[in-house]
Design brief:
Blueprint: H1 22-26, E1 61-62, E2 72-73, H2 162-182, E3 211-215, H3 220-235, E4 244-249, H4 255-269, H5 276-283, E5 286-290, H6 296-313, E6 319-323, H7 330-339, E7 351-355, H8 363-376, E8 382-384, H9 392-402, E9 416-424, H10 433-436, H11 440-458, H12 467-480, E10 481-482, H13 487-490, E11 491-497, E12 499-501, E13 504-506, E14 524-531, E15 541-546, E16 553-560, E17 580-586, E18 590-598, E19 606-614, H14 615-618, H15 626-636, H16 645-664, E20 669-672, H17 679-686
Parallel strand pairs: 1-2, 3-4, 3-6, 4-5, 6-7, 7-8, 9-15, 11-20
Antiparallel strand pairs: 9-16, 10-14, 11-14, 12-13, 14-15, 16-17, 17-18, 18-19
Helix pairs in contact: 3-4, 3-15, 7-8, 8-16, 11-12, 11-16, 12-16
Length: 695
């Protein structure tokens, strides 16, 4: 009702002005009964009339004034599907009743055509020109009291058809909505931003909706590295607006106390400038859960906090659990996560575990931990942090080797004499006595950092820069590592003694607070390794790491063989050393190429010079901290820079025999604080006719 349907013209449908209808002029039609009182503009209902309908008739158009379903124009009553400005209904209370003239037209004149310009009868589906509002309907003198057979005006686009257009538009919208509802919604892991092009490197990688839970949030690592890294990511616009940070520790803190601790850590250690608006947005998503790792109530509170953040911050159920705790707590924490359903991701979401080094104490312990963790999380959900792999210069090893043609041809046994990998620290153990004693330098950094650097330096070119391809090539190297036959001559462990460091007198290791005076833990370790493959056969790799050494530096030095023949006499080349490519991992990230050059003058004298590349001078943007890159990679699910459990186990396979030998053979050697290590380490290289580089 109320929607004119197109069709062929029929009775009562006008195609335009025509001759007068004789029946309308003759007045021969029988009169109908009296019309009940209606509103001021209402007249008796009469099928077939057109114009200004005023009474209750379905399907009328024009200026209706009563309750008529489906009417359009200026409705005045409570009628469904009407359009216009409603006015109160006043049926039965006319201001000026009209004459009882059935079928009469308004202002009709003798000889008026059936297609009157101002018809007043209520006719289904008819149209016409409304009469002025408020004019009472009356008959003209001489008008016959007879029904008028009116012809409808042609259908035209206008106000009368607005309901039709809107109804059609609504139907289209409903159909489109139904189509969208029927389309499967992509999960968070499957969703791809249609506005992003993988070939476009101008835009940074930004994490999707997610949150981070840190266990052991009150420790030094969290305060000095993790919390500042989270803020720096937010400050650079790399975290989602609803990112959430949850702390878990044995402190009786409220959320506000935790936020204050994070605020102080950020102010003290953040790399980027502090901005209040960034902090306010980040702090709104901070929560704290007090408790021990075996406290079921605390883990129930943690689950409640995670669910609350899902609804209030829109994290989408995506959470990473960062285990910044000693290795002995790893099994307990992951089992609690499983017990309370925190390790199970909702449909379309993800859950990940982040584990700090050292991963285990030896090979057997590492395998046991791997089994425990993999009972809760799948291998691809576990991210083992080795923060050295997050450093720009470490990643640049692959770019240096495989993006350039000039280095790879000489990166083999035909040209390389030996490789030195050094990690030196100028500090002692600080407040880490409880962690460090019993672990030592070899387990702390050689097993993970230095062996990872060795693998990246010696590996073959991967098929692609992805986690699986990198794992394949690194595993080949680690499986090819060969220990020296005489571990006593080609490995050294030592402890620092009191001495001078940075102009201050410092105590020795066994005098440090919390250290057993009889401790045999090594603070310095040096080993010689070989790699049994075609590329590196016969090339020794020397690894060393230690505390309280001359300065803080980490570098990889690829030292080349001397030229097989020199046309210059001995005096001309006596100051010429071996060519080398030195990759500086920290603190001055960059690379140095050392080679010989003639000294200006009249004589032929050649000595070493260096060409230097520094990140700070070549690029306008400073290098992010390693934990920034690694935390972002965890949130993105990018595992390229994280060792897999196979690599961890192979690293322990290399180190375990060395540790077993040291346990059976006496005490560690000693070296004064502030020097470059024990005399025994220098003798180890001297037996091979080589010497340590002085960084």
């Amino acid at each position: 009702p109320g929607t004119p349907e197109p069709g062929p013209p029929g009775p009562g449908t006008a195609r335009g002005p025509g001759p007068p209808d004789p029946s309308a002029l003759s007045g021969s039609a029988p009169a109908r009964g009296p019309v009940p009182d209606t509103t001021a503009q209402a007249v008796a209902p009469d099928p077939g009339t057109t114009g200004n309908p005023t009474s209750d008739a379905p399907g009328t158009t024009g200026n209706p004034t009563s309750d008529a379903p489906g009417t359009a124009g200026n409705p005045t009553s409570d009628a469904p599907e009407t359009m216009g400005s409603p006015a109160p209904d006043t049926p039965g209370a006319p201001e000026k009743p009209t004459p009882n003239a059935p079928g009469a037209t308004v202002n009709a004149t003798p000889g008026a055509s059936a297609a009157a310009e101002k018809p007043t009868g209520d006719t289904p589906g008819t149209t016409g020109s409304p009469a002025p509002t408020g004019s009472p309907a009356r008959s003209s003198p001489g008008a016959p009291d007879a029904p008028v057979r009116a012809t409808a005006a042609p259908r035209a686009a206008g106000p009368a058809h607005a309901p039709v257009a809107k109804a059609a538009k609504a139907a289209k919208a409903a159909e489109a909505a139904k189509g969208r509802m029927d389309t499967p919604v992509a999960s968070a892991a499957e969703w791809v931003n249609p506005l992003r092009d993988p070939r476009d490197r101008r835009l940074p990688r930004i994490a999707g909706p997610s949150g981070l839970v840190i266990f052991g949030v009150t420790g030094d690592l969290s305060r000095k590295k993790l919390m500042p890294a989270v803020y720096d990511l937010a400050n650079r616009g790399l975290l989602p607006p609803g990112f959430s940070l949850v702390g878990f520790a044995r402190r009786d803190w409220e959320d506000q106390d935790f936020a204050q601790v994070v605020h102080e850590s950020v102010k003290a250690h953040a790399r980027t400038p502090f901005r209040e608006e960034v902090w306010q947005q980040l702090s709104e998503g901070m929560r704290f859960v007090p408790g021990d790792f075996d406290d079921d109530t605390a883990f129930k509170q943690l689950r409640a906090a995670v669910e609350e953040l899902d609804s209030s911050r829109g994290t989408g159920g995506n959470f990473a659990f960062y285990l910044s705790v000693p290795p002995r707590f790893f099994p307990k924490v992951v089992q609690q996560l499983k017990k309370h359903g925190l390790a199970d991701a909702p449909r379309g979401s993800w859950r990940r575990a982040v584990i700090e080094k050292p991963f285990g104490h030896d090979l057997a312990d590492a395998r046991r931990l791997n089994r425990t963790v993999h009972e809760v999380f799948d291998p691809e959900q576990v991210f083992r942090i080795d923060h050295y792999l997050g450093k720009e210069t470490v990643q640049n090893i692959l770019a240096l080797r495989f993006a350039n043609q000039m280095y790879e041809p000489v990166w083999n046994r035909s040209y390389v004499d030996h490789v030195q990998i050094t990690m030196a620290e100028d500090i002692g153990i600080g407040g880490r006595a409880g962690y460090y004693d019993g672990i030592g330098a070899a387990r702390d950094v050689v097993q993970n950092h230095l062996l990872q650097l060795l693998a990246l330096t010696a590996m073959e070119e991967p098929l692609a820069f992805d986690a699986d391809a990198l794992l394949t090539e690194k595993l080949k190297v680690l499986k090819s590592v060969r220990l020296p036959e005489d571990l006593g001559s080609h490995t050294v462990r030592a402890q620092y003694t009191e001495g001078w460091q940075g102009g201050e007198r410092v105590v020795g290791y066994v005098q440090e607070e919390g250290i057993d005076p009889g401790s045999r833990t090594d603070t310095y370790a040096a080993v010689k390794l070989g790699i049994d493959n075609r590329r590196w056969a016969g090339v020794p790799f020397y690894l060393r790491a230690g505390k309280r050494l001359g300065r803080r530096v980490t570098e990889i030095a690829v030292v080349f063989q001397r030229a097989p023949h020199s046309p210059f006499d001995t005096s001309a080349t006596e100051e010429l050393g071996q060519n080398a490519i030195v990759i500086r991992v920290q603190p001055d990230e960059g690379m140095t190429v050392r080679f010989g050059s003639k000294v200006p003058g009249t004589s032929m004298e050649i000595r070493d010079v260096s060409m230097d590349f520094a990140y700070g001078e070549s690029f306008t943007e400073s290098s992010p901290e390693a934990y920034e890159r690694l935390i972002l990679d965890v949130l993105l699910g990018d595992a390229n820079l994280f060792p897999r459990h196979q690599e961890v186990e192979e690293s322990w396979r290399i180190l375990d025999p060395i540790e077993a030998y040291w346990d059976e053979h006496g005490r560690p050697a000693q070296y004064p604080a502030g020097t470059w290590g024990p005399r025994e380490a220098d003798e180890m290289l001297a037996r091979d006719g080589r010497s340590w580089r002085r960084p």
